[in-house]
Design goal:
Length: 86
Amino acid sequence: MKIAKDDVAAVRAILLHDWDPIGFRVPDDEYDSYLWPVLRMLQEGAPREAIEDYLRTTASDTIGCPVPEARLSLVVDKLLALGLAR
């Protein structure tokens, strides 16, 4: 599956500016290791709940900084609004 640079940039921006579990200015590539699974889920048309679960678990268990549910919901709204399902 081909991945457009604009799609990567859009997902990166949402993770960096909206999801941002660390909560303060981090390098632009800080969340890139989480970007690729999210991008793949979006392209494959994964259900909203799967994307939410991935981001919730990553923030709380991997990064150690849980994201409030309301913010998580808004992040997933933005990600789905990108319309990346192929």
